């Protein structure tokens, strides 16, 4: 028995070695920094060093953040924008993947696939500038089009009614190509025999999609859903920071932009860490519960 | 799909990175570093008491320029800006950040050997890196830190009290330089009555001006502005009378950004026309400080701005545009009025000239609604102070370096043409090679006065130093070098400093009165209050909120923390009187 294990270990040694750098990386950059969580409970002064003579303040940082005017509003904005992003971020790629999967023209399919994947690589700093121009109410592309159709101009980035949806749609546009590729990969993994058999039984395209394609990628959908639930408080700092303005603080200010302003600009590290910890704890709870439900109802497990 | 990588968590990543570094170094140094650190500290200073006596300088006397017999090694840190990287280093062959004429001068004249623990690019990167350095506990001998960092370091007893060294070692020229804009410049670095750091001498800047496209004025037969009413009329004409002659209604009067305030395309100069001074602490006339944005004059200015917005004189979208975006409109010739500092011709106005050689921006002094001269609002913008690590053997060396910087550039034994902007190196600012860079707030206006004098006498041979370097640039423009367009706009016969001289001679400045490090509540609430202020003002200007929301804003401002901040600021003010 022991001999067998040694043999097995020997055989798998290269594989274990390959995972080692990733393992060290995680330890170093994900677990070690967790020691910094203590900052959330301190009045942190960098010059006194991390484990130095810092003043402990208990939950004061948390209380302080919650006591700030607008905190409820900011929390709601964050949750609202992030959850709509999560939902659209799941639905749109699945639909597009299923549609692309039905395409017979391989070259066209590949071109579309690449084209929708491209925006994923652009940074929000660049896209922010472009969107400000495209969405401009006076001479932007979108509003010129709306005017031609006899509609009034919409100030997408300056109107509190429109700002959150502009964020959600542009974010989905930027990243749906990435998700589509994952689902397309999953779709190619489905045994073609199943489709043939279904055709024999007289199932049309729609029925095939419902009964073969979707169940075939169910596991991937559940996995991505579970993981994305951890993002319910991540409304996207890069994007909103590059496109928001004082006019839309009311509907667009989110936890991360808020923390940026009070944490980094005003150097209140304790407060910034407290908000970070708050977000992480909520994300942990969400991921754990969704994982539990995925296991219970879809019999799905990652570990 | 929402990306699961932490890329969208830029802040948290930064913070965790910072913590990692701090944690690792803290871990590795838990036991050994305390021992390795001890010998570098002077024995007299191991305990935190008994530091009141200034340590003896190596040379023994208080000579502001005394040279150390045994070379003194000093560890610095520094930031390198784009100008240094792209212009200065390429134009000075053989010189680097670590080895150059300034560091040689410090070695030869003072016996000080400067080394850098690290160098990074200017701005946030420097502040971040400094935070990491502070957390690591391994401080360089001399550090440039933010006001908040200085206060923390002072309270943690990690930096030297510089008061005695300043008194004994600062040269007369240096002392004069720091007194130019009032005692607050030096006193702002006081913590508990002791000078803990030396900041910039030119911290207030030298004036806000009114920039107007003179070619548009001439085209529409409008007079130069002498009152704010004139400016309003000009703004209207620039909007409705098609000054660019393209038969399209596509021009605006006044430039403004979503940030409202700023050294270029800012509104401070406009507000000053109503004797309103938002975004700074001013004396309310009874000896108490008050936040300028909350005063009734601001409401009046906002009313005027909202009327301008309604009439189409302001960019409908300014609320989403930052300085870079508005500068694009200026470059495209859409805007005719800009409030900003003397350097505005260098940015952003020159880009307008580059696209349209007819664009002729001329600087005027600020104008007011009621004939009472508008004062130029001068915010106290101390972003950094030099401090000396507690226990460093020769704190006075910092002051000596300041002395030498002033002396070599502007002193009697100095050589401006070698140490500041040498013509031999295409007049790049080699003064930036020096780690410490004190400069007079009014040196530019004085240089203008020298050039003006030479113009009157038509004898430019007598020009020296900075005035000569500037005159060469003006001449270069006259001889066809279009890239030097900004110089005559500032220093020429029609230059903006005509009005700068007037400002300086008649004290037409409204200096911000609060100059201390951020107070307790200010540190906590500043960004919240700023957000409240900008949101309200932008909305009022755009007509998205009624003018009377200003009164609600004032109430809210006091409620959300303004009351405490005002109290703390006035306590600070009382200690300076």
Report on this model:
- By secondary structure, chain A is mostly helical.
- The two termini of chain A are 25 Å apart.
- Chain A has a two-stranded antiparallel ribbon with strand order 1-2.
- The mean pLDDT of chain A is 88.
- Helices cover 70% and strands 1% of the residues of chain A.
- Chain A contains 14 helices and two strands, in the order αββααααααααααααα.
- The longest helix of chain A is centred in the first third of the chain and has 31 residues, at 71-101.
- Chain A folds into two domains: 1-58, no CATH class; 69-298, MetI-like fold, CATH 1.10.3720.10.
- In chain B, strand 4 (190-191) and strand 5 form a beta hairpin.
- Chain B is built from 23 helices and 14 strands.
- Chain B has three domains: 58-204 and 382-433, Periplasmic binding protein-like II (D-Maltodextrin-Binding Protein, domain 2), CATH 3.40.190.10; 209-379 and 511-576, Periplasmic binding protein-like II (D-Maltodextrin-Binding Protein, domain 2, 3-Layer(aba) Sandwich), CATH 3.40.190.10; 443-507, no CATH class.
- The N and C termini of chain B lie far apart (61 Å).
- The longest helix of chain B is centred in the C-terminal third of the chain and has 28 residues, at 549-576.
- The radius of gyration of chain B is 26 Å and the shape is globular.
- With 577 residues, chain B is of the alpha/beta class.
- In chain B, the strands form six sheets. A four-stranded mixed β-sheet of chain B has the order 7-10-6-11.
- The relative contact order of chain B is 0.13.
- At the A-B interface, helix 3, helix 7, helix 10, helix 11 and helix 13 of A face helix 1, helix 5, helix 6 and helix 22 of B.
In the predicted model, the low-confidence regions of chain A spanning at least 5 consecutive residues are none
For the termini of chain B, the CA-CA separation is 61 Å
Quote the distance from N terminus to C terminus of chain A.
25 Å
Q: Please list the strands of the largest sheet of chain B in the order they lie side by side.
A: 7-10-6-11
Low-confidence stretches of chain B: 1-60
Oligomer: heterodimer
Annotated CATH topology of the largest domain in chain B: D-Maltodextrin-Binding Protein, domain 2
Total beta-strand segments of chain A: 2
Bin the helical content of chain A. Answer: 55-70%
In DSSP terms (H or I, runs of 4 or more residues), the helix count of chain B works out at: 23
């Amino acid at each position: 028995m022991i001999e067998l294990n040694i043999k097995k270990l020997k055989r798998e040694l290269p594989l274990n070695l390959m995972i080692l750098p990733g393992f060290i990386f995680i330890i170093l950059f994900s677990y070690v920094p967790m020691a910094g969580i203590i900052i959330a409970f301190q009045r942190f002064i960098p010059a006194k060093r991390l484990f130095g003579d810092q003043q402990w303040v208990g939950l004061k940082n948390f209380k302080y953040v919650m006591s700030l005017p607008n905190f409820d509003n900011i929390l709601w904005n964050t949750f609202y924008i992030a959850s709509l992003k999560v939902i659209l971020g799941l639905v749109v790629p699945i639909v597009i993947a299923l549609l692309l999967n039905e395409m017979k023209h391989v070259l066209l399919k590949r071109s579309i696939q690449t084209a929708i994947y491209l925006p994923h690589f652009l940074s929000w700093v660049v896209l922010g500038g472009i969107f400000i121009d495209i969405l401009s109410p006076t001479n932007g592309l979108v509003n010129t089009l709306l005017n031609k159709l006899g509609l009034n101009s919409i100030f997408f980035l300056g109107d509190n009614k429109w700002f959150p949806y502009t964020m959600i749609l542009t974010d989905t546009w930027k990243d749906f190509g990435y998700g589509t590729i994952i689902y397309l990969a999953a779709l190619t993994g489905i045994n073609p025999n199943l489709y043939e058999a279904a055709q024999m039984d007289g199932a049309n395209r729609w029925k095939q999609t419902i009964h073969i394609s979707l169940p075939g990628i169910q596991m991937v959908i559940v996995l991505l859903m579970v993981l994305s639930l951890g993002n319910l408080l991540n409304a996207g700092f890069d994007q909103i920071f590059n496109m928001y303005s004082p006019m839309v603080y009311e509907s667009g200010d989110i936890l991360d932009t808020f923390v940026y302003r009070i944490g980094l600009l005003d150097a209140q590290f304790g407060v910034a860490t407290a908000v970070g910890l708050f977000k992480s704890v909520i994300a942990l709870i969400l991921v754990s519960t969704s994982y539990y439900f995925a296991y219970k109802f879809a019999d799905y497990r990652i570990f | 799909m929402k990306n699961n990588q932490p890329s969208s968590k830029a802040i948290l990543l930064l913070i965790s990175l910072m913590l990692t570094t701090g944690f690792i170094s803290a871990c590795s140094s838990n036991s050994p570093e305390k021992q390795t650190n001890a010998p570098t500290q002077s024995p007299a200073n191991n305990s935190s008491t008994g530091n009141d006596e200034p340590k003896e300088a190596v040379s023994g006397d208080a000579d502001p320029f005394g040279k150390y017999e045994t070379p003194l090694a000093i560890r610095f840190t520094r930031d390198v800006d784009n100008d240094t990287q792209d212009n200065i280093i390429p134009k000075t062959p053989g010189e680097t950040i670590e080895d150059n004429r300034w560091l040689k001068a410090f070695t030869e004249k003072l016996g000080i050997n400067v080394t850098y623990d690290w160098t990074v690019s200017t701005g946030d990167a420097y502040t971040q890196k400094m935070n990491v350095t502070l957390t690591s506990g391994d401080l360089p001998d001399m550090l440039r830190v933010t006001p908040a960092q200085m206060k923390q370091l002072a309270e943690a007893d990690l930096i030297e009290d510089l008061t005695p060294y300043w008194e004994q070692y600062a040269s007369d020229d240096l002392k004069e330089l720091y007194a130019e804009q009032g005692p607050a410049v030096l006193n702002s670095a006081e913590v508990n009555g002791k000078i803990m750091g030396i900041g910039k001498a030119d911290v207030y800047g030298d004036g806000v001006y009114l920039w107007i496209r003179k070619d548009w004025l001439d085209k529409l037969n409008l007079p130069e502005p002498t009152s704010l009413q004139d400016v309003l009329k000009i703004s209207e004409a620039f909007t409705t009378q098609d000054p660019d002659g393209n038969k399209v209604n596509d021009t605006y009067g006044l430039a403004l950004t979503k940030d409202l305030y700023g050294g270029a395309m800012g509104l401070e100069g406009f507000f000053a026309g109503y004797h309103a001074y938002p975004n700074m602490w001013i004396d309310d006339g009874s000896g108490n400080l008050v936040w300028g944005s909350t005063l009734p004059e601001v409401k009046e200015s906002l009313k005027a701005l909202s009327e301008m917005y309604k009439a189409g004189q302001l960019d409908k979208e300014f609320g989403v545009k930052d300085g870079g975006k508005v500068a694009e409109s200026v470059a495209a010739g859409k805007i005719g009025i800009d409030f900003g500092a003397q350097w505005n011709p260098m940015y952003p106005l020159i880009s307008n000239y580059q696209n349209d050689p007819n664009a002729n921006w001329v600087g005027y002094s600020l104008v007011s609604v009621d004939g009472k001269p508008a004062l130029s609002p001068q915010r106290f913008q101390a972003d950094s102070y030099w401090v000396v690590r507690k226990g460093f053997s020769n704190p006075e060396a910092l002051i000596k370096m300041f002395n030498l910087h002033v002396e070599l550039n502007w002193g009697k034994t100095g050589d401006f043409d070698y140490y500041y902007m040498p013509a031999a190196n295409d007049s790049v600012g080699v003064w930036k090679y020096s780690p410490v860079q004190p400069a007079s707030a009014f040196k530019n206006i004085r240089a203008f006065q020298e050039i003006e004098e030479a113009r009157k006498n038509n004898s430019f041979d007598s020009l020296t130093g900075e005035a000569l370097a500037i005159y060469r640039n003006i001449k270069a423009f006259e001889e066809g070098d279009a890239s030097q367009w900004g110089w005559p706009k500032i220093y020429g016969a029609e230059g903006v400093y005509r009005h700068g001289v007037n400002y300086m001679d008649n004290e037409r400045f409204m200096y911000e009165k609060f100059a201390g490090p951020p107070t307790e509540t200010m540190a906590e609430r500043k960004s919240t209050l700023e957000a409240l202020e900008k949101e309200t003002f932008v909305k009022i200007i755009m007509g998205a909120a009624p003018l009377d929301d200003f009164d609600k804003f004032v109430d809210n401002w006091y409620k959300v923390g303004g009351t405490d901040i005002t109290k703390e600021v006035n306590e600070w003010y009382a200690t300076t009187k």
